[in-house]
UniProtKB/TrEMBL annotation:
This is RNA helicase. It comes from Nannospalax galili. It catalyses: ATP + H2O = ADP + phosphate + H(+). One of its GO terms (cellular component) is chromatoid body. Residues 525-670 form the Helicase C-terminal domain. ATP-dependent RNA helicase required during spermatogenesis to repress transposable elements and preventing their mobilization, which is essential for the germline integrity. Acts via the piRNA metabolic process, which mediates the repression of transposable elements during meiosis by forming complexes composed of piRNAs and Piwi proteins and governs the methylation and subsequent repression of transposons. Involved in the secondary piRNAs metabolic process, the production of piRNAs in fetal male germ cells through a ping-pong amplification cycle. Residues 45-57, 71-80 have a biased composition (Basic and acidic residues).
Length: 723
C-alpha cells in the first residue's frame, strides 16, 4: 500500500476504556488487593498529594455547571440554500450565510454531520463507517485508499469550491481529489485574516469537476480518473514538497521548555509493572550508565530528573526486553525509548554508512502522523548529537525523492509514518535485516484497524527479523484491552507491561471543564472563551476538516488570530500552521484529530473541544496537548446532548479518576445512558483497560525485590484464554 494510500473501508471499533463507577471495583487493580502491586514512581511510599485540581491556578472560567449552556440546539433550522460559493449536487455544504454570520451548524444536509475523519492519522478513519454508513473520509493520508478515490468534488477552502458528485460526503476531500484537481483549482485565499493579514489562509476551492486544489509546489497532476489513484511510489502523482531542513545550530537542537510546577509530583503516581523478571527501576540518569556523550546531550536537553515512565522503561529496554508502556500524556515517553536504544547503539559502535544504495537501519520508529514523527525525529537527532548514529525522518506529503536522498546519506534510526515506510521498503530503498528495534509510538493507534494492517505488513516483509529476533517497544497514553491483545502478536511472550497511573487516564495536570453547549451556540461560546483567554496558546479541536476551515475562518473574522491544521491542508501549510502556532504568531490553532496525539508544543495553556471526539481515548490524547511535563493546563469541552451522550459515562470516569469536578448533569446523562457491562456497544462504555490485560487471565503475581510488582503472567501465546 502506498503512501497516502489507505484501506478506507476498514472499520475501527469504538474503543473505550470506561467502566462505570458502580462497576469499578470489578475491574480495579492494586488497591483492592489483587495480585499486582502498585508502586509509586518515586519508589517510596505513596503520599497523598493534593488533588489534581488543586494544582491549578483557578481560571476565570466558572465550572461547567455554572457556565453550562443548556442550549439543546433548538434554534431555527437553517436553510439549505447556500449564500456563497458554488456547490455540487447532493449534500452540498458551504458557508451558508457564513459571510453574513448566518452560518449555522447542525444542518441535516450534512455539513456538520459529515464524517469526522482526518488523516494520515485519521483516527476516525474507520469511524466514518459506523457514523455515516460506509464512506471513508478523504484524507491527507499516509494511508488513504482505493475507497476514497472517487472524483467527487472537493471542498478546498472556505468559500465555495465544490465539484460534482457528493461534495459533502466523507469522500469529498480525499487525497486523490486533492491531487488530481490542481490543474483545475485556482489558488484563492478564502480569508486573509484580520489582524496581520496572513494569519490564516484557507485555500479557496474551485468548482471544477473534481474540485479542490493542491499547491503548486506540492502536487503534480496526472489527470487520472476515478479509482486510478496511485501513490507516488506506485507511479502515481508526484508530491513535490520538500520540507525545510531543521536548524543545525546547537541552541536550536537543544531548545526546550521548562518542566512545570507539578513535575516532582510525577513521583507520587502509582506504577505497575507486570511480567516476569522485571529489571529494577532506576532513580537517576546516572544509574542508567549511559556514555558520556549521551549524558551530555541529556543535560543539554535540560533533563535532570527521570519521569516515572523513564525510570521503569529505560532499564527494561536496556535489558533487551520487549515492552508495552502506558503513561500519561506529556510525561516523557519519547525519551523513555530513545535513550536506551541510543545507548545500545553507541555501545555497539554503530555508524551510519553514507551513500550506500541500500540503507539498513537498526531502529525503526513509526508514529501515526507526520508532525509527530517529525517531532520524534528531532528528539532522536538531539539525543544522538555528536555521535555516529544518524536519524532520518520520512513521511507522506513530501517529495518521495527527498525521502530517498535523506536515507542514502546514512540511516541508523528511521523515523517514519507507516505509508511512506511501506513505500520505501517496497522500492527496496531500505533493507530490514539489521532491524533490532521496532518502536510503535501511539501504539494503540498504530495497531487499531486503521494502521494495523500496515504494521502487520511491515513485520511480514521478507528479511525483517521476527519478533524473537528484534526488540519491540510499544508506547502510548491509552491502551484499550482489545489492542493490548492484538499487541501480543508483535511482542515476545515475555514482554513487560508498564502502567504509569491509570491506563488511559487523563493527565491530572489538566483542569477539565465540561460545558453543556448545543451546536447552535458553540461558536458564540468559543469566541467568548477565547476573548477571555486572550493571547494564551489554545488548541481548538473540531471533528471534521471542513469544520476546521470554517471555524478558523470564522475566528479570523472575529479578529482572533487563528491558523488551522488538518488532513486536507497541504503538508507545507500544515507545517507552516504548526510553526505559526508554536512561535505564537497565531495563538489559536484549530485542529482535527490529526493534532490530537503526541504533539509537544510549548505553552499550550488551553485545549477546547469544540466538538467532542467519538472516543474517550481520543479525548484523553487531545486534552494532553496541554498540561505537559509538569506544567498545568486547562481543557474545556462542549458537550452537545444531541450527539455526545455516548461519551457521558467514560467522561465521568476520566474526570473522576483525574480528581476533577463532575457536573451533576453529566452524571445524570451517564446514569441514564448506562450500558450493561459486557454489552459491546461498539467498544464504548465497556471494560476499562485498567491494567495489563494478561492480568485477566493469569494466576498470581509476585513482588520483586525492587518493590516493583511482577506478575506471573502466563505466556500469552500459550494461554488458551488469551484470545
Ligand atoms: N526527564 C525529563 N526532564 C525534563 N523534561 C522532560 C523529561 N522527559 C521528557 N521531557 C520533556 O517533556 C515533554 C513531553 O515529553 P514527550 O513528548 O516525550 O511526552 P509523551 O509522554 O510522549 O506525550 P504524549 O503522550 O502526548 O505523546 C517534552 O518536551 C520532553 O522534552
Amino acid at each position: 500500500m502506498g503512501d497516502e494510500d489507505w484501506e478506507a473501508e476498514i472499520l475501527r471499533p469504538h474503543v473505550s476504556s470506561y467502566v462505570p463507577a458502580f462497576e469499578k471495583d470489578k475491574y480495579s487493580s492494586g488497591a483492592n488487593g489483587d495480585t499486582f502491586n502498585r508502586t509509586s514512581a518515586s519508589l517510596s511510599e505513596m503520599k497523598d498529594g493534593p488533588s489534581g485540581r488543586d494544582h491549578f491556578m483557578r481560571s476565570g472560567f466558572p465550572s461547567g455547571r455554572n457556565l453550562g449552556n443548556r442550549d439543546t440546539g433548538k434554534s431555527s433550522k437553517r436553510e439549505n440554500t447556500p449564500t456563497t460559493g458554488g456547490f455540487g449536487r447532493g449534500k452540498s455544504f458551504g458557508n451558508r450565510g457564513f459571510l453574513n454570520n448566518k452560518f449555522e451548524e447542525g444542518d441535516s444536509s450534512g455539513f456538520w454531520k459529515e464524517s469526522n475523519n482526518d488523516c494520515e492519522d485519521n483516527p476516525t478513519r474507520s469511524r466514518g463507517f459506523s457514523k455515516r454508513g460506509g464512506y471513508q473520509d478523504g484524507n491527507d493520508s499516509e494511508a488513504s485508499g482505493p475507497f476514497r478515490r472517487g472524483g467527487r468534488g472537493s471542498f478546498r477552502g472556505c468559500r465555495g469550491g465544490f465539484g460534482l458528485g457528493r461534495p459533502n460526503s466523507e469522500y469529498d476531500q480525499d487525497e486523490e481529489t486533492q491531487r488530481s484537481s490542481s490543474l483545475f483549482g485556482s489558488r484563492r485565499p478564502a480569508v486573509s485574516t484580520a489582524d496581520n493579514g496572513n494569519t490564516y489562509q484557507s485555500r479557496g476551492g474551485s468548482g471544477s469537476g473534481r474540485g479542490g486544489y493542491k499547491g503548486l509546489n506540492e502536487e503534480i497532476v496526472t489527470g487520472s480518473g476515478k479509482n486510478s489513484w496511485k501513490s507516488e511510489a506506485e507511479g502515481g502523482p508526484k508530491v513535490m514538497y520538500i520540507p525545510p531542513p531543521p536548524p543545525e545550530d546547537e541552541d536550536s537542537i537543544f531548545a526546550h521548555y521548562q518542566t512545570g510546577i507539578n513535575f516532582d509530583k510525577y513521583d507520587t503516581i502509582l506504577v505497575e509493572v507486570s511480567g516476569h523478571d522485571v529489571p529494577p527501576a532506576i532513580l537517576t540518569f546516572e544509574e542508567a550508565n549511559f556514555c558520556q556523550t549521551l549524558n551530555n546531550n541529556i543535560a543539554k536537553a535540560g533533563y535532570t530528573k527521570l519521569t516515572p515512565v523513564q525510570k521503569y522503561s529505560i532499564p527494561i529496554v536496556l535489558a533487551g526486553r520487549d515492552l508495552m508502556a502506558c503513561a500519561q500524556t506529556g510525561s516523557g515517553k519519547t525519551a523513555a525509548f530513545l535513550l536506551p536504544i541510543l545507548a545500545h547503539m553507541m555501545r555497539d559502535g554503530i555508524t551510519a554508512s553514507r551513500f550506500k544504495e541500500l540503507q539498513e537501519p537498526e531502529c525503526i520508529i513509526v508514529a501515526p502522523t507526520r508532525e509527530l514523527i517529525n517531532q520524534i525525529y528531532l528528539e532522536a537527532r538531539k539525543f544522538s548529537f555528536g555521535t555516529c548514529v544518524r536519524a532520518v525522518v520520512i513521511y507522506g506529503g513530501t517529495q518521495f525523492g527527498h525521502s530517498i536522498r535523506q536515507l542514502v546519506q546514512g540511516c541508523n534510526i528511521l523515523c517514519a509514518t507507516p505509508g511512506r515506510l511501506i513505500d520505501i521498503i517496497g522500492k527496496e530503498k531500505i533493507g530490514l535485516k539489521q532491524v533490532k528495534y521496532l518502536v510503535l509510538d501511539e501504539a494503540d493507534r498504530m495497531l487499531d484497524m486503521g494502521f494495523g494492517p500496515e504494521i502487520k505488513k511491515l513485520i511480514s516483509f521478507p528479511g525483517i527479523p521476527s519478533k524473537e529476533h528484534r526488540q519491540t517497544l510499544l508506547f502510548s497514553a491509552t491502551f484499550p484491552e482489545e489492542i493490548q491483545r492484538l499487541a501480543g502478536e508483535f511482542l515476545k511472550s515475555s514482554y513487560l507491561f508498564v502502567a504509569v497511573g491509570q491506563v488511559g487516564g487523563a493527565c491530572r495536570d489538566v483542569q477539565q471543564t465540561i460545558l453543556q453547549v448545543g451546536q447552535y451556540s458553540k461558536r458564540e461560546k468559543l469566541v467568548e472563551i477565547l476573548r477571555n483567554i486572550g493571547d494564551e496558546r489554545t488548541m481548538v479541536f473540531v471533528e471534521t476538516k471542513k469544520k476546521a476551515d470554517f471555524i478558523a475562518t470564522f475566528l479570523c473574522q472575529e479578529k482572533i488570530s487563528t491558523t488551522s491544521i488538518h488532513g486536507d491542508r497541504e503538508q507545507r501549510e500544515r507545517e507552516q500552521a504548526l510553526g505559526d502556532f508554536r512561535c505564537g504568531k497565531c495563538p489559536v490553532l484549530v485542529a482535527t484529530s490529526v493534532a490530537a496525539r503526541g504533539l509537544d508544543i510549548e505553552n499550550v495553556q488551553h485545549v477546547i473541544n469544540f466538538d467532542l471526539p467519538s472516543t474517550i481515548d481520543e479525548y484523553v490524547h487531545r486534552i494532553g496537548r496541554t498540561g505537559r511535563c509538569g506544567n498545568t493546563g486547562r481543557a474545556i469541552s462542549f458537550f452537545d446532548t444531541e450527539s455526545d451522550n455516548h461519551l457521558a459515562q467514560p467522561l465521568v470516569k476520566v474526570l473522576s479518576d483525574a480528581q476533577q469536578d463532575v457536573p451533576a448533569w453529566l452524571e445524570e446523562i451517564a446514569f441514564s445512558t448506562y450500558v450493561t457491562p459486557g454489552f459491546n456497544n461498539s467498544g464504548r462504555g465497556t471494560v476499562f483497560a485498567s491494567v495489563d490485560t494478561r492480568k485477566n487471565y493469569q494466576g498470581k503475581n509476585t513482588l520483586n525485590t525492587a518493590g516493583i510488582s511482577s506478575s506471573q503472567a502466563p505466556d500469552p501465546v500459550d494461554d488458551e484464554s488469551w484470545d
